[in-house]
## 1
Amino acid sequence: MGKLKTQSLQKRDSDLAQSNRQLEILSNGIFKTGELPTFAKKIKETTNHFPLRPRKLEILQINVGYMCNQVCEHCHVDAGPDRKEIMTWETMEQCLDVIRNTGAHTLDLTGGAPEMNPHFRRFVEEASKAGIKDFIVRSNLTIIRANKKHYDLPDFFKKHNVHVVSSMPHWTRGKTDKQRGEGVFDLSIKALQELNARGYGMPDSDLRLDLVYNPSGAFLPGDQDAMEKDFKKALMEDFGIQFHSLFAITNLPIARFLDYLIASENYEDYMYQLVEAYNPAAVQNVMCTNTISISWDGYLYDCDFNQMLELKVASKVQHISEYNEEVLNDRDIIISQHCYGCTAGAGSSCQGAVTE
Amino acid sequence: MSYYDPKDLRKFGDITEWSEELGTKFFDYYGKVFEEGALTAREKSLIALAVAHTEQCPYCIDAYTKDSLQRGVTKEEMMEAVHVGAAIKSGATLVHGVMMMNKVNKLDG
């Protein structure tokens, strides 16, 4: 792969590597002066979902580490090759206990590049035996072609009936490489072709291959169905590639995306866009109401974004070692202004839009 | 300070406050025009972007550049749309050259 875009905020020793600094920015300025309403105020005024509470748990999302072979410009995890936070086998075993007993129907592995965790394959093998209905691995695609030892990942995924979800910011090389690094587009195309060759993403195949689209700059995603049509047409015409669904995800103003918004003087405008696009109908389905996010060191969060902001669940149970679904479900969800990202337009979650 | 303030675009909806019926009718119509129809919303966005340039409306350029990006339109496509607008604009000027030629021929032919 070509040149990496940048280094993580942590490596750069940036102010914004600190989660409390990010939270401070999100609570100050236009939200402190009242120019824009805080998220809490907005949902209080427009819905009966305050405080925000979980519904039935459906998705267990496990972040197995922040290490990644890419350094995407807008990564909310601030992931990269320089990040050393990796889930140990001991914590994975605690996760496996939970996976075997959970009422959730979906298991969602993410990172960083989850495949870079040295215990990744063993974990997938064990987890796939637990009989969870939908087993997702969020693969960045380039990892499949990054090193010979990963070349057989498509076969490995197929063997364990893994549902592959991959990021693809655009169907053109220029826009993809701008966001994700030079050479990412070509490697991603090659990886998608490999997955297609195994049956992934084919129209009648049970081997699910979905793509995630998030905008390459300071603007919101367009209509998910229309984008899916455009992606399908272009990837088929240009490369003969097929996939099942496209999830359009809004960039949340945290970590490297927040850094980008501030540096490019787009922060205020972006927050305006999010608040103006606020859709009260999306509130009841935001993903924190049906998801628990688990970090590399076993702590529990309302979502992957709260994980990156180090906002642990407001519950007696805060760690996988003491996991109790009933106790956990009886909690208030922690919110701040970044949550506007999940309620803009048709809503946004790791599974894409949340309203029809 | 310039006559145009980018923040005023956010207040566009306020025009309804001084004439509710007409403002509401306009925004209903506007919203309907840009819905997916025989043309896709993406195609409409590109048409709007080209017209925004020929009208030289800064608010519209701002709005439809962003709208195009949201719909996955590439910068190459956007610039081609602007050229379409520019070609019509310059063509509209040049085709009047025929009038000038007619007049010359009549007066001094």
## 2
Amino acid sequence: MPAKKIVVTGIGAISPLGTSAAESWTALLSGASGARPLEQEWAAGYELPVAFAAQSPVRPAELLERVESRRLDPSSQFALIAGREAWADAGSPEVDPSRLAVDWATGIGGVWTLLDAWDTLRERGPRRVMPMTVPMLMPNAPAAAIGMELGARAGLRSVVSACASSTESIINAYEHLQQGLADVIVTGGSEAAIHPLPLAAFASMQALSKRNEDPARASRPYDVDRDGFVLGEGAAALVLETEEHAKARGARIYAEVLGGSVTSDSYHITAPDPEGSAAARAMLSTLTNAGLSPADVVHVNAHATSTPVGDEAEYQAMRRVFGEALEGVIVSATKASTGHLLGGAGAIEAVFAVKTLQERTVPPTINLENQDPAIPLQVATQPTALPEGDAVVLSNSFGFGGHNAVVAFRSA
Amino acid sequence: MALSTEEILAGLAELITDETGIAADAVQLDKSFTDDLDIDSISMMTIVVNAEDKFGVKIPDDEVKNLKTVGDAVSYIEKAQA
């Protein structure tokens, strides 16, 4: 059993559903979708096979000072906005800088900066490539932006595991707190990859939904007509802290973090292992390490991206873990509303899992019109009350490369 | 037509404000980029590259280290555009 209790004391988010955690959560409960057509000038110049994405309602630069935003790729701008919100939400704790750390992830990094600089190089020559290009495009830039903002000196760590990245970061934050490396850690993830190149590349591998005529209904996990994921963007942040530290300063505690587990399929670079054995082991060892059993779990925020293969593989993994008890687990696939935030996905879903526990309400999965008979999960299609009593929830994330990351939370 | 000292100063101040947030009226000829305005080397290079574009001049990398004050930069640009 873990030595210390680790708790969540602050949350923040900027997502296709809103510019704060509260706005995103409220929109999620209302059944909203963040997906809309790409009306930007840059999108018109290409005949993109997928012409929509789940987009932040506001460009992140508009929420920052101009001087700040000029030096940050949008992926770091999103990170800073969500990080600031979470920090303020935690009551801006006074922490010894040497006891404050950041564990932050992105799946891709500063893709806008990299490709804009490439255009500049080709069109205007090397002299015009801005000196901030490298520190803006590096995948640890979002962690550094938050770290500099807060003066964190116990380490800024960035893990990269595609769409499992930010769940893995949250697990790392938990473990770093358990190891005594810090008292408080800001953790989460961000992504800003709605750019013609990633859109073309994801479309080329047939990963994206092509429902151009109806973007809001394109992300439809578990539905028989699902045809791929919807690219999203944004960031979400959580402030994790030892319970001892949180209680000493009288902080509000949202939920307890029970830790998590990382496993790998090593089966195929993009396709999940259809047997789901490694994904199942990630769920099972998360529970075992916390001294729990599958029967303790009341809710899973699934990875469920709305791809034909991925949703079913995750179901197979869940069936391995829960067996018959799966009937008692209420599942949500919130990517139906948010789209897929890639390196930010695990973080926004962790924020939703924490809100689920705080408000004792499971969020709905929209667009589920004809549930795939091969995936007989209990899916909440309306906001649904959690059962009474102590509640344990899991949040699953899986990434290209065969990464499986699962994190667990318990009601405070 | 060549720009006047005042016009170059105003143009340069605009670039500095844009990059660093320093108020334009704080950008004066006798101010040191590093000691008074606290401009780091990355911002300095960004300002230089943008100044080359704005004023249609070339400022070689080797020259940049000689531009200690705003006045140094203004006179360099003034001569270079002549």
